[in-house]
Amino acid sequence: MAVFLDILLSGVFHAAVLFLVAGGLQLVFGVQRIVNLACGAFYALGAYFGVTAVTFAMSLGAPAYALLPVLLVAGLSLAVIGPPIERLLRLVYDRDEGFQLLLTFAIMLMSQDVFRFIWGSTPRTLGNLSLAYGQVNVGPTLIPTYKLLVIFASIAIAVGLGLMLQKSRFGRIVRATAENRPMIEALGVNSGRVMVIVFTLGTVLGTVGGALVVPTAAASLDMIVDLVVEAFAVVVIGGLGSMRGALVGALVVGLVRSLAVFYYAEFEMLSIYLIVIVVLIFRPTGLFGKPLE
Description:
The protein has helices at 2-32, 39-59, 67-77, 82-89, 97-119, 145-167, 169-179, 181-186, 191-213, 222-238, 243-263, 268-282, and strands spanning 135-138, 141-144. The protein is mainly α. The chain has one domain (16-221). A two-stranded antiparallel ribbon has the order 1-2. A hairpin with a 2-residue loop joins β1 (135-138) and β2. The longest helix has 31 residues, at 2-32. The termini are far apart. 40% of the residues are buried.
């Protein structure tokens, strides 16, 4: 039972963080029809900036239990990079998908050099600071309270995002823009502004995910590519453009990855690829995706 709970918690924790990044990827694609390979760069930026923000806060005498709020603020503050990058992507909105992939891939590659210049090539960690919140007894095992807090925070963000898209006026505008952009412009809506807000929101989801994961994993240059692989596995499994698919896909990838790491670490990435292959064979559009028109 202890082993089962450890595997389950590790999988759900990873899925919670992965959902934030994949959810941002799905949101951007659903509205802007851009497959954003730069999502891994946003994730790594959130991790690096989270380490810097926490280290700075601790040097000013902030208590250890301020870890989570500081990381959330660090991730949210990186919203400032969303508008300029979205402005750059406007060059390829109406061009072939290949141009979009090349541009976002170039952003990802350039970000690696920028991060290496600022933070160096050595991975950055926060040590055991995540244990500042203590541990909780769940049956026969101890569960770090920080991981539970991150899971609950991810659930709260998912619920808030869902309510915003379904119930708010802006959410209706976003869904209408995704369905028929020319019509929404004819009705007087500034679609350019909607694009900026949506892309910035997708960026923030990625940076917050990176900031939240860094107390349990080192911030490194390798996490950029690793995250892109996992995020696109989530998208393929769940279906491109589906937020519900992002949630289910993240759970599948997170749990499979946790099982593989525990029983046979070398099988970690292969197990994810095998699931992706099976989904592509039997459900090419993903579990909740729809064929593109």
